[in-house]
Structures are given as structure tokens and as C-alpha cells.
Specification:
The complex is a heterodimer. Chain A is α+β, with helices and mostly antiparallel strands. Chain A has 16 helices and 27 strands. Chain A has a domain at 8-226: Beta-Lactamase, CATH 3.30.450. In chain A, the strands form six sheets. Chain A has a seven-stranded antiparallel sheet, with helices on both faces. Chain A has a five-stranded antiparallel sheet with strand order 14-15-20-17-18, with helices on one face. Chain A is globular. The relative contact order of chain A is 0.10. Chain B is an alpha+beta fold. Among the domains of chain B are: 3-76 and 230-270, ATPase, nucleotide binding domain (Nucleotidyltransferase, domain 5, 2-Layer Sandwich); 80-227, no CATH class; 499-610, Dna Ligase, domain 1 (2-Layer Sandwich), CATH 3.30.1490; 628-691, no CATH class. In chain B, the strands form nine sheets. In chain B, strands 19-14-13-22-23-34-33-30 form an eight-stranded mixed sheet, sandwiched between helices. In chain B, strand 31 and strand 32 (671-674) form a beta hairpin. The two termini of chain B are 45 Å apart. The relative contact order of chain B is 0.10. Classes of the chains: A alpha+beta, B alpha+beta. Chains A and B meet through helix 1, strand 7, helix 6, helix 12 and strand 14 of A and helix 4, helix 5 and helix 9 of B.
């Protein structure tokens, strides 16, 4: 297409207009949808795509849904141009994880937009997470599925709306599989309404400014964002960074750890994400298809570079290469099951990508402030089903813990307490009152959980916990538990910051909670109630009877930097605000306080911290390294602690204390002082959970000053201590 | 003679408008006295009365109505100068505020900040952790008591909060809007034991579903309540002592006024009273001039506020955000940035970049040119340096500005460090503040899907008419109107407002429902409305409107369906689903309604409006384009270069006069700047209509 130059004011107006159109589309989607997860948590999104199906602008809610629209439109263009054809006022629906969406319960619809001359000029798209689309287990997860055949049958892109009218026969076929047909039908109309809104506004814009100007503007939006992204990448040092994150998956009583091994290579203005070495695919449930892998990386890229570029997926895609061997859990092959696609391996991929990109930023003093530890870790959620307090069928979810984990620490400040996942500016959790109005449950509490935040010079955010019991029903027959991150921490820290806590779930059966209510007691811990304790596996089907208690803790965010460097006054404030206990203030941060946590005991804290340093020196194995003569700074570095120096003998890696650890091309972890502490060192909510011999916590210290350089969760892979210039 | 008085007490100036029974308008202003609101207000009335040759007492004695808007409470919130507040809430849910539904991390951030995930943080809340008390009690979604209120804990909580020096207590329990009993028991307990402390209940302030927003609303009300009670009581006393025979009205963010005593208990509803007054004024003026779509822009001393009139209506926000806090009360939609005449220009020490605002010199010490000790250069100082403000004729000549101080401040603090000449530095300050204002208007229009070029721009506030030519041009807006009463426009809007009271009850029901049930809910609301009317009197004709927020089952979003203001018949109730579906498809598009889901009725609303006497603007016969009779001189004004520019006296301009730019039109307390190439015409109501090019 030849591009007419657009005057800068018109461009600015239209660019904002496009943004406003996505906002309006997203608002329509939220308003019409029948899912509280949508209208209360914004688990939905919209997109405007160009004629070729590339994402020009997406809404500010969960990016995944919008990215699914891109895959769906691309597929329709590739496969359906002749049969069944793409016409004005058609809309295509899909939830096929091998074509469109991360899993079957994410359902998208895309609508072609035609100009006056019947020329395809753009697409509108909308996606929603729906409660149930069939399969053996209520809700999204097909517990124990050994392939996609044992999960909900996907719907590949189908023409659901033909020339403006819903195809009744096809709608029946889509709805019949679901346990929540009414809700799904309403959600489908929400997507139709959102697409209709976007189309209408878009065509008004075309009417006024002309199709050429509007399509030219879209191309320019992508080009400008791409140019900006490339210029940022050129300013960053080239290098290679790796990370391995693990997914614990309990499949029919046996837990397997799946590794997501990512090597990020940055050269000039390109990024290569290489997943070689990741674990083979699981039979079902947790895998990630190629389209989901792309979406997962895009989510992180859009979040971390969002400060500089608009939410323009096409621009991001142009600077990325993705390499992932087929048949792995990060790029699975048919018929691997994927029913938990949004909250399993796709999250693991995001964690690895967040860490690797942060390491890239840390290598540049100018970009160091963009460093972010892992937000939220793996998600913990439980879906509910049965009949509600009014006797009508319902499907719902305890989504609060999934979306309100602790945010990762940043290089200059703490993570946000109950700040949730990376990106998703408008993601929210429902009010307790909203959940209680919808579902037959009563919350005994919902709070920020003490001692869940990953420790560090800047700590991660605290996680959320809740405790609830069935209310006004005798039984909630369906309780589909699906969580990871129960058996090993998943919210990794950076540069000496510890990981956040693990997720936890407890069910206590047959308690006398109703009697306690009558006595005027409102229990706040499972321990205040008598009953049979169940600690369910991550993925399981269960139920709740009247008198049963469900308690769930989501993990805190990863920390940043050595906790002994944390300002004692900040630790005091954390204790006063109930984020850190006095015990852990002393143990992890070496900070001692007066009994009311009003002042820091300065001298005692100083001594305690010196003792902790001495203990590091005593326990660590401390290799010696030949110190080169008169090393000079090169301006290159790995991070705030480690920089590259030059002497006649070559390039070396030097700690900020002056100690030279190794040659610059070597892995510094081979030359660091190492301690393998107990897991309990990370906090009370990982204790006794990680029992696996193949997993270790590694602490790497500078052998001279004993600054904590890195805390690593090591399993099948060890994360390399290399970086820029490597 | 009888009078109606409107007051708008802003951050820097307090404006007064006086209308007599002949429709003649007098107006003037005085400096706001932040330490004592009343002083500045009385001064503004006295100044205005003097212009008519009257005394303060005489005007107050003969006044029928006096309505006040104030930003003092909003300023107290923004600067965190509210009361020390304790919060009592349901045990186990103390963290609802800090969790903030997760979205508190981005609520209230600018669009740019929202995209920068590194910038995200939740705000420090108005109640510290040490003043937060959970007590054992629980009510469920039906309003049924599940766990009794533990009075021992209540006593301990109240006792320790008082001991820690709490000046106000907010009480917000789960489901209190379904059953306010527990909240009321706590309130009664406090009234018995510590009667002097300010107490506010969530079931009174925000009786809607959603504990996070409801609690935040309640907390802000408690945070500002003691100050509101003090301020409004002393105001009423001061007026009464000078012969005013009625209680004063206070402007509300809801777009109407209520009596001062009511307003003191609902401080959270007063937060944007001044700006909202201006928007109501725009709607009223728009009706007179025949404009349906108006961008209302108010540039005062400390802030720049933007609101919209769309199709003649003033849109309400359901859940507005003040600072970083989301509240749940119906509020006229206004957005604001810290940009005004008092905005301070400074150079960032780290980067050497020039920035303007949001810090303001306010009225004390004020801009450097005031000569009151302010040393920082402000936008007003820059306007003086550029020759746009005449230092000898500022504020109707009552305040002489010190041009040398203005120049010194700009030279020393900005021009010197940047190594540029003083006049270019002053131009840079003005360009930046103009761009900030244009950006905010973009946010209020383009980012909501409207094209600003489809709107007429109305500029008011002391500094608006001086800058409108620049920000309107930047936005491509063709027509900007400066009201004849621009400097006191919000005050004019405030005295044009009716008494408006909102009554609502959340009571979720599912169709089919009986007419008797609906009538009983509305009867309850009507009873409250009638009680308030009986208690407070109705100095005008009373009208009611009713609506029901409806939705399809499974949805949480609701749509208001208007119903007639009378007993509903069975037929009317049977029609409700059709009305809802029609409205729904009108909003979301045909085919989107899904009747099979079932229809729920959620919140019942009643608005009581008491029409108050409204001034009618006087019309003038056009006298032809020649404005030379109003020409009072020439002076050098800097646009892109120094230009010798004619100066007109606004008071001498007649209807139909035309002024070609470059020109300066000076009024009693404002200056209209007509840029080169722009053209101003005086309309039949003596408004100056600017053709922007």
C-alpha cells in the first residue's frame, strides 16, 4: 500500500481516537458480559487489527485475549478466504488452542471491517474468559486429562455471525457442550456488542477522514512503535541471559517438575527468545501451544516496554525471534492437552521472560530502573459449581488469590502489595460483597498475608489470603482446584532478592463454624476450628459441604538486592503494617525493634547484621581467585553489583567491593562463595513444602564482602552467571 | 430590593456574584483565606456590594438566597490536611482498603503513568494501620445477621482510637447497606460515650454494594467531616450575625445545592463543588446561546478543570476518583490538572528541564509580582513579563503588580540557568502551561472518543480568557466563548443550581416482581425525601424523578431505567423488561440483549429537585462592529515577537463590536488575549466570542 503522508495533528488525533475506540469496545464488553470475572476482574480484552490481521492497538486489560484475536484473524485470512468466505458483518468465533486461544475457556470473536468499496480495511476482535465450555470436569481444567481428547473439545474458527445475524444452529452447537449455557450465550453477545461498537466507531473515523488516511495512520502507529523499540534495544548492551523456571504439576497423584529454560539473546535491535532445553510436553492440562508461547512473550514485552510504546503487538512482533522445539511443554504438539493454558506453562514462560529482560536492563545503568522481579508467581485459584443460594445453577471462581499475588520488587522500590501479575493495568479483583452476592459462600476474611513477600533490599509485594465457607447451601458439589507453585517458589527474586512464598491451599472438613458464628466468634485461622485437615494437590476435583472451610494463600512477589542492605526503617514500617513479622525482620533482615515497632534498635541491628555477615563467611565455601593488577573500569557491567574491568591480563568480573571474581567470559557462580540453605530461609510459607532432593536453594556471595549476589532455585538446570558481552 | 448571591471559593480567589430582582448582575472577588474560609467569602461579598454602592450587611439582610461552592475540602484532601481518622470495620476485612481491589495501584494515575509498570504503587491510605480496627460482627448478602456485634470489642476499639487522638471515626461494615443496624449501634455507642467526635456511617454516605469503594467514600467523609462542620457552621453564623435570614446553601459535586448543615455531614459530596458549579453554569449558558456540546474550561490560580456538556446534558460519573481514591457517589464528571496562574515554573535540578506546576504559589505568598514574599516565578509572572497582563491594571486596578519582581524571578530562576533571554524564558513557561491544558482537554474528549473540534469551548476563571486563544488553537477548536462574567463564572453557575438530593437503595430483586414490592421500596425513598423536605423546607417547586438500575442476571453492570414518579401499576411493572431491553439495545447494539438470562433489578433511585429562582441574562441590541469607543490604549505584547497591541476595555465594548487580533481586552478581573489572526465578536449577552485560527 502506498502511504499518504498524514499531518501530525491528524495523526495524533486519530491515534488517540483508535485508543479511545479500544477503550469503548472494552467498556462495552465488560458491561454486557455475564461473567463477574469479566465485569469485576476485567478478564477480557479487545483489539483493532489491520487488514492482514496484525495487532495495531489492543485494550488495557489482559493482553492475552487480544492476542488471541490476532491469531484467529490470521487463520481466517489464510484458510477461509474462499470457503466459507469472509464478508461484511460476519464474525468468527474460536477457542481452539492450536489456532487461537491459550485454552478452551478463552473464547474470542473477530469481525472483519470493510470500507465503502468492499475492501477489507481492518478487523475488530474481542475475547472473554468463560466459566465452562464442557469436558469431563466443570470449569476450565480437565483434571487428569491424558490428551486434548479428554478435555473440552475445541471449536476452531467458525462463522458464528453471518451477515449480521447469529447462526442459530451453530450457536446451539457451541452452547450445548457447556454447563453454563446462559452465561456463555450472554458472553457471546458481549463480544458481538464490543465488535459492533468498535466497527461503528472505526467506520465513523473512516467516513470523516477517509480509508487511506485511517489505514495509513495504523501503519504509521506500528512503524513508530517499532522504531522506538529498536532505538531502545540499540541503547542496551548486547548479551545473553538465561533463566529456568519450573512448573510443579500434580497429575493423578504424581508431581512432575516441568522446566521452562529460556535463553535471551540481544544483538543490535533484535531479541531472540530460545527455549531449547525445556521439558517435553505433559500429556494434558498444562501445556502451551505455539500461539500461546507467542502471546505469553508478547504480554511481558508489552508490559516492560509499555512506558515507551503504545499497546501495539505488531511492532513488538517485528523485533522478536522465537525458537522453541516442538513437542515441549512450551510448544506442544497435538494431541497434548492445554486446558489450564492461561495459568500454567504460559505463566512460567512469563516469569522466565521477565527475569531475562530484567537482566538485560540491569546491564545498563540508564535502564536499571526498569528491572522487575517476578510478579505474582504461579496462580492459585479454585472454580466453584453447582446450585447457588437461590437454587439456580452457577459457575464461579475464587479469582482473588489468582490475581492478587505480590508484585515483583523493582531496583528502586518495593513490589506492590497484592499488586497482581505483570502488566494488565486495569486488572482487578471483585469486592467480597460481589462474590457473596453471586456465589453461595461467606468470606471469613480476605487480607494481605504476613511474611509472604520475597525478601530483599527492596522486597516483593505481599500476597493475598482468604478463608471462606459455603453459605445458604448444603453443598457446593464442584470445587475444581487448580494451582501450581505449591511445591517450589515461583516468584523469583533478582540479585540477592529471595523468591516470594509458595501458594498454599487447605480444606478443613466438618468444622463447627456455624455454631461458632452463633456464639459470636468469627474464626480467622483454620487452627481456630476443629476439623479434618486436607491439603489437596495442585490440580484436583473436590467439593465443599456446609461447615467446611476453604483457605488459600497466594504467593508474594520476588525481592531485589541483598536483604541486609534494606533500610531498617523500611523494615520497621513493614512490621508496623503487618507485612513482615518481628521474627522474620530479625532473621532475614537482621533488624531489631522496640516492642511496639516504633523505633529501630540501631546498635542491636548493626550487631545483628554483622553477625549475619560473619555467618555467611563461616558457612560459605569461598574460592580464591588470582587478582589482576590495576584493573580499569570498562563501563560494561552485569548489574549493580558486578561490573567488567580491564587489565593487561584481560577482562574480568569485579564485585563493587573491588574483589575480582573471575574472567569476564566465565560464569561467576563458579567463583562465588556458595551456601545451600534450607528452604525455610525464604520464609514461613515455604517451610516443609519443598521436599524434593533435586531442588535446592542456592545463595551466591562475593567471597570478600559477602554481599548476596544471587538467590537461585536450582533444579534440572542451573542458571548461568553470565550476561552482557557474553 | 432582594438579592441572590453565589460564591465560589477557589484555591486563590473567592468569587462573588450578586443578582438583584431586576436581573442586574454585579460581581467581584477577594483573596481566599485558607486559614479561615469565612473571611475571604465575606470580603468578596463586601467588594461586590461596594460596586453597587451597598454595604455588606444591607445586601445580606435583603438576600433571599446564598449559595457557596468551595475547593477547601478538596485541597485538604490533596495536601493530606484532614482529620486524624480511625476506621472500624468488619473483622477479617481490615485490609480491604490497602488491597484496593488490586486496581488501586493504577487508579488516579495519568495514562502515561498507567503504561509504566515500574511507576505503579498503591497510595498511602488516609487511615494508618495503627488506627484501623476490625470488630467481630457479620451480616450476609440478604441483610441477615450471621455473627452478632461484639460490643466489648466496639468499646475497646472506640476507646483506643480516642486515646490515640482520633478526631473522626468512620464505620464501614460488610453488607451495611442491606442492614445498617450494626453500624448504627456503634454510632449510638460513640454518641453516648464520646459525643464530640465526628462519626460517619457507610450505610448513610454510600449505601451501595462494594465494600472497597464504600469504605473509601466513608473514610474520606470522616477525614474531611470535622473541617466541613467547622467551616460551614462558622460560615452560617457569620452570615446570620450580619443579618442574613436563611441558612446558606453549599454546592455539591452532584450538580445541585443543599443546606450547609446537610453538607457538613456529607463532606465527600462537596469535593468538586466549585468546578461542578462552572459546568452547571455552562449548561445554563449553552441553553441560552443554543450550544449543545460544550467543553467547559476553568483556569484559576492553582488548577485547570475540564468538564463536558454533551447534548445539553451534564454527564455523571458513577465512581469518580479523587486523588488516588475511588469513591462511590454520583458526581458530575470533572478532570483537573495543577495548572493555573499561580503554578510555579522551575528547573529540574537533575535534568535541567523546565517544568511548570503542579506546585502553586497560591495566594500566599502568591506570584513574585504580588510582592508578598514569593520568589518563585509563576505563570502570572510570565504573563506580566510578556506584557499580557498590565501590572497597573490587575484585578480591576485594585492590586498593583510589581513588574520588576516578575522579571527578576523569571530571569534569576529560569532564564539565567537556561542561558536564554528573560522574555523567551517567560514565553517557554506560558507555552508549557498551555500545552498541559490542551493535553487535559484531549484527555477529556479525544480519549473518550469525542473530537474536540465538534465542541464549543467556554473559558472562564481568572486566567482562562488569557490563555484560551492558545489552547483552543492547539486543539483545532474554531470557537471559544469568554463569558461576560468569566472571572466569576462558577459562582454564577452555583447560584443557578437547584437543590438536588439523591436517594438510593440497593435491593437486588429478580423479575418477575410485584408492583407492591417496588412501590414499597420507592415509598421508603419517598418517605426519606419528604422528611428532608419537611425538615429543611422547599423554597421552590419540587419535582421527583425515579429510576431503577437494571441488568441481566450474571451481569454486574447496570443500566438506569426511568420510571414514572407515581405508584407503579401492574401493567407498568410488566413493561419494565421491555423498557430495559430497548434501552439496552440502544446502548449496546441490536441483538445484544439476552432475555433468557433473566432480568434483575438492583438499585432503586430517586432524585428530588427543588427549583430555585434563576437569574435571566439581560440581552443587548447589537451596535455594529466598530469597537473604537472601547479602545483605551496600546502596549507592547509578546506573541512570537514584541507587537504593539491595542488594548480595549471590556466594560465599554457593546454588543456586535468586533476586535481583530492582536488585541488585549481588559475586564475587571480578567484579560482576553486575542492572538494575531484571531477575531473576537461581542454577542447580545456581552460574551466575547473568539474565532480561533
Amino acid at each position: 500500500m502506498t502511504m499518504k503522508p498524514i499531518d501530525p495533528i491528524t495523526f495524533e488525533v486519530l491515534k488517540h481516537r483508535l485508543w479511545a475506540i479500544t477503550e469503548e469496545g472494552a467498556a462495552t464488553l465488560r458491561n454486557v458480559s455475564g461473567s463477574p470475572t469479566v465485569s469485576q476482574s476485567n478478564d477480557c480484552n479487545v483489539a483493532v487489527l489491520d487488514a492482514s490481521g496484525e495487532g495495531v492497538m489492543i485494550g488495557a486489560t489482559l493482553p492475552t485475549h487480544a492476542l488471541s484475536c490476532i491469531h484467529t484473524a490470521r487463520y481466517a485470512l489464510r484458510e477461509y478466504a474462499q470457503n466459507p468466505g469472509i464478508s461484511r458483518d460476519d464474525m468468527f468465533l474460536s477457542n481452539d488452542p492450536y489456532i487461537s486461544t491459550p485454552h478452551q475457556t478463552c473464547v474470542v470473536m473477530v469481525a472483519p471491517i470493510f470500507g465503502d468499496d468492499s475492501c477489507l480495511i481492518a478487523w475488530a476482535g474481542a475475547g472473554i474468559h468463560v466459566a465452562d465450555v464442557g469436558g469431563p470436569t466443570p470449569g476450565q481444567v480437565a483434571v487428569g486429562a491424558q490428551s486434548i481428547y479428554q478435555e473440552a473439545t475445541p471449536v476452531p474458527p467458525i462463522k458464528m455471525v453471518e451477515r449480521g445475524v447469529i447462526r442459530k444452529d451453530i450457536e446451539q452447537d457451541y452452547l450445548i457442550r457447556s454447563r453454563t449455557r446462559g452465561q456463555n450465550a450472554l458472553d457471546m453477545r458481549a463480544k458481538i456488542a464490543a465488535n459492533t461498537t468498535i466497527k461503528r466507531r472505526f467506520l465513523e473515523m473512516v467516513q470523516r477522514y477517509g480509508a487511506d488516511t485511517v489505514t495509513g495512520m495504523m501503519e504509521q502507529v506500528i512503524n513508530q512503535a517499532e522504531a522506538r523499540l529498536r532505538s531502545i534495544l540499540r541503547e542496551l548492551p548486547d548479551g545473553r541471559w538465561d533463566h529456568t523456571s519450573y512448573l510443579d504439576y500434580d497429575d493423578r497423584g504424581k508431581t512432575t517438575f516441568y522446566a521452562c529454560h529460556l535463553t535471551l539473546i540481544k544483538k543490535g535491535d533484535r531479541l531472540t527468545f530460545d527455549f531449547s532445553g525445556s521439558s517435553p510436553q505433559a500429556p494434558g492440562v498444562i501445556n502451551c501451544t505455539r500461539v500461546t508461547l507467542e502471546s505469553s512473550l508478547m504480554v511481558v514485552m508489552l508490559a516492560l516496554f509499555g512506558y515507551a510504546i503504545p499497546l501495539c503487538p505488531a511492532a513488538v512482533l517485528r523485533v522478536m525471534d522465537i525458537q522453541a522445539p516442538p513437542g515441549t511443554a512450551v510448544n506442544c504438539s497435538w494431541p497434548a492437552g492445554v486446558s489450564k493454558g492461561t495459568t500454567s506453562m504460559s505463566q512460567t514462560i512469563r516469569h522466565a521472560a521477565t527475569i531475562c529482560l530484567s537482566k538485560m536492563f540491569a546491564a545498563s545503568p540508564e535502564y536499571e530502573r526498569r528491572v522487575l522481579a517476578v510478579c505474582g508467581g504461579q496462580m492459585i485459584a479454585a472454580e466453584l459449581g453447582g446450585r447457588d443460594q437461590r437454587g439456580e445453577p452457577f459457575g464461579g471462581v475464587f479469582i482473588d488469590t489468582a490475581l492478587a499475588g505480590g508484585y515483583g520488587a523493582r531496583s528502586l522500590k518495593d513490589g506492590v502489595d497484592t499488586g497482581g501479575m505483570v502488566g494488565g493495568a486495569e486488572v482487578s479483583i471483585p469486592n467480597v460483597e460481589t462474590s457473596e452476592f453471586r456465589y453461595p459462600v461467606l468470606y471469613l476474611y480476605r487480607r494481605q498475608q504476613i511474611d509472604t513477600a520475597g525478601a530483599g533490599r527492596f522486597r516483593g509485594g505481599a500476597g493475598l489470603s482468604l478463608m471462606a465457607t459455603p453459605h445458604d447451601v448444603d453443598r457446593i458439589p464442584d470445587l475444581a482446584l487448580h494451582s501450581h507453585g505449591l511445591e517450589a517458589p515461583t516468584a523469583f527474586g533478582l540479585y540477592g532478592g529471595y523468591p516470594g512464598s509458595t501458594n498454599q491451599c487447605t480444606i478443613k472438613r466438618k468444622t463447627a463454624v456455624q455454631e461458632l458464628f452463633k456464639k459470636g466468634i468469627l474464626p480467622q485461622e483454620p487452627g481456630e476450628l476443629e476439623g479434618e485437615v486436607e491439603t489437596p494437590p495442585g490440580v484436583a476435583v473436590s467439593y465443599l459441604d456446609k461447615g467446611d472451610i476453604y483457605q488459600c494463600l497466594s504467593c508474594g512477589g520476588g525481592g531485589y538486592g541483598d536483604p541486609l542492605e534494606r533500610d531498617p526503617e523500611m523494615v520497621r514500617r513493614d512490621v508496623a503494617n503487618g507485612i513482615v513479622s518481628r521474627d522474620w525482620a530479625r532473621r532475614t533482615y537482621g533488624v531489631l525493634l522496640d516492642p511496639r515497632a516504633e523505633t529501630v534498635k540501631q546498635q542491636a541491628t548493626k550487631e545483628r547484621r554483622l553477625n549475619l555477615l560473619a555467618e555467611r563467611a563461616r558457612r560459605a565455601t569461598s574460592p580464591a581467585f588470582h587478582q589482576p593488577q590495576s584493573p580499569e573500569p570498562t563501563g560494561k557491567r552485569l548489574n549493580a553489583y558486578l561490573s567488567i574491568v580491564h587489565s593487561r591480563e584481560g577482562d574480568f568480573l569485579q564485585c563493587r567491593c573491588g574483589h575480582v571474581l573471575c574472567l569476564a567470559r566465565e560464569d561467576y557462580k563458579d567463583h562465588a562463595a556458595v551456601i545451600l540453605p534450607r528452604w525455610s530461609k525464604t520464609g514461613p510459607y515455604v517451610m516443609n513444602l519443598v521436599k524434593r532432593p533435586e531442588f535446592h536453594l542456592h545463595e551466591y556471595y562475593c567471597p570478600r564482602c559477602y554481599t548476596l549476589l544471587d538467590v537461585e532455585v536450582t533444579g534440572s538446570h542451573r542458571v548461568e552467571g553470565v550476561g552482557s558481552g557474553a | 430590593m432582594s438579592y441572590i448571591i453565589g460564591i465560589d471559593s477557589g484555591g486563590t480567589f473567592t468569587d462573588c456574584v450578586l443578582v438583584d430582582d431586576q436581573g442586574r448582575i454585579a460581581s467581584d472577588k477577594a483573596f481566599t483565606t485558607p486559614q479561615n474560609l469565612t473571611e475571604g467569602i465575606l470580603q468578596s461579598i463586601e467588594n461586590t456590594a461596594k460596586a453597587r454602592g451597598l454595604g455588606l450587611q444591607q445586601v445580606l439582610k435583603e438576600a433571599d438566597l446564598l449559595a457557596v461552592g468551595t475547593t477547601s475540602l478538596l485541597n485538604a484532601l490533596l495536601t493530606r490536611r484532614g482529620a486524624k481518622v480511625g476506621l472500624i470495620t468488619t473483622r477479617g476485612h481490615e485490609d480491604a482498603l490497602v488491597i484496593g481491589r488490586v486496581m488501586a495501584k493504577t487508579d488516579g494515575l495519568s495514562e502515561a503513568e498507567k503504561r509504566d509498570i515500574i511507576a505503579w504503587d498503591k497510595p498511602e491510605h488516609l487511615v494508618p494501620h495503627s488506627l484501623l480496627r476490625g470488630v467481630t460482627e457479620r451480616v450476609d448478602y440478604k441483610g441477615a445477621e450471621i455473627v452478632a456485634l461484639n460490643m466489648r470489642e466496639v468499646e475497646a476499639a472506640v476507646g483506643s482510637l480516642v486515646a490515640q487522638g482520633a478526631e473522626a471515626i468512620a464505620i464501614s461494615f460488610l453488607w451495611s447497606f442491606m442492614n445498617p443496624q450494626h453500624e448504627r449501634v456503634v454510632k449510638d455507642f460513640i454518641a453516648r460515650t464520646t459525643p464530640d467526635i465526628f462519626v460517619t456511617l457507610s450505610s448513610d454516605v454510600s449505601p451501595y454494594l462494594g465494600e472497597y469503594e464504600r469504605t473509601t467514600t466513608t473514610l474520606i467523609n470522616a477525614y474531611l467531616g470535622p473541617r466541613a462542620s467547622r467551616d460551614f457552621a462558622s460560615l452560617s453564623q457569620a452570615f446570620a450575625a450580619r443579618g442574613f435570614a436563611h441558612p446558606p446553601f453549599i454546592m455539591q459535586s452532584t450538580g445541585g445545592v443543599v443546606w450547609a448543615e446537610e453538607a457538613a455531614n456529607n463532606a465527600v459530596c462537596t469535593l468538586s463543588s466549585g468546578p461542578v458549579g462552572g459546568i452547571i453554569g455552562c449548561a445554563v449558558l449553552g441553553k441560552t446561546l443554543g450550544y449543545q456540546n460544550i467543553i467547559a474550561t476553568d483556569m484559576g490560580g492553582t488548577s485547570f478543570d475540564v468538564g463536558l456538556v454533551r447534548q445539553g446534558e451534564v454527564p455523571l460519573a458513577r465512581s469518580p476518583i479523587y486523588d488516588r481514591f475511588r469513591v462511590l457517589i454520583p458526581t458530575v464528571d470533572v478532570v483537573s490538572v495543577g495548572a493555573g496562574g499561580g503554578s510555579i515554573a522551575r528547573i529540574e535540578p537533575e535534568t535541567g528541564a523546565l517544568s511548570v506546576g503542579p506546585q502553586s504559589a497560591g495566594s500566599q505568598p502568591g506570584p513574585a509580582c504580588y510582592g508578598w514574599g514569593g520568589l518563585e516565578p509563576t505563570v502570572t509572572d510570565a504573563d506580566v513579563v510578556l506584557g499580557r497582563i498590565d501590572p497597573d491594571n490587575f484585578f480591576g486596578g485594585r492590586k498593583r503588580l510589581d513588574g520588576a519582581r516578575a522579571e527578576e524571578a523569571v530571569r534569576e530562576k529560569i532564564a539565567g540557568p537556561l542561558r536564554m533571554d528573560t522574555i523567551r524564558a517567560a514565553k517557554g513557561i506560558v507555552d508549557i502551561v498551555d500545552a498541559h491544558m490542551a493535553d487535559l482537554i484531549r484527555k477529556a474528549t479525544i480519549e473518550r472518543g469525542y473530537d474536540p473540534r465538534d465542541f464549543v469551548l467556554l473559558a472562564y476563571g481568572g486566567a482562562g480568557p488569557l490563555h484560551v486563544g492558545a489552547y483552543a488553537r492547539e486543539l483545532g477548536i474554531k470557537k471559544a466563548i469568554v463569558s461576560a462574567y468569566a472571572p466569576v463564572f462558577s459562582a454564577l453557575g452555583i447560584l443557578s443550581s437547584d437543590i438536588v438530593r439523591f436517594y438510593a437503595k440497593s435491593e437486588p430483586l429478580r423479575m418477575p416482581v410485584t408492583a407492591a414490592k417496588l412501590n414499597s421500596v420507592f415509598d421508603g425513598l419517598a418517605r426519606s425525601a419528604r422528611q428532608d423536605l419537611e425538615r429543611t423546607g422547599a423554597p421552590g417547586s419540587v419535582s421527583f424523578s425515579r429510576s431503577i438500575d437494571m441488568r441481566f442476571r450474571y451481569q454486574t453492570h447496570q443500566l438506569a431505567v426511568p420510571v414514572p414518579d407515581r405508584e407503579l401499576t401492574t401493567e407498568a411493572v410488566e413493561q419494565l423488561p421491555n423498557q430495559f431491553v430497548a434501552r439496552y439495545e440502544e446502548t449496546f447494539g441490536p441483538g445484544t440483549a439476552f432475555k433468557e438470562a433473566g432480568i434483575e433489578l438492583v438499585t432503586f433511585r430517586m432524585v428530588c429537585r427543588v427549583a430555585l429562582p434563576r437569574p435571566s441574562l439581560r440581552e443587548y441590541e447589537p451596535k455594529g462592529p466598530d469597537a473604537s469607543a472601547a479602545l483605551i490604549g496600546r502596549r507592547s505584547v509578546f506573541f512570537e515577537d514584541m507587537v504593539t497591541t491595542p488594548v480595549y476595555d471590556m466594560a465599554k465594548l457593546a454588543a456586535g463590536n468586533v476586535v481583530e487580533g492582536p488585541a488585549v481586552v481588559e475586564g475587571a478581573a480578567t484579560v482576553v488575549l486575542v492572538h494575531p489572526g484571531q477575531r473576537a465578536e461581542v454577542d447580545r449577552y456581552l460574551n466575547v466570542a473568539l474565532e480561533v485560527r
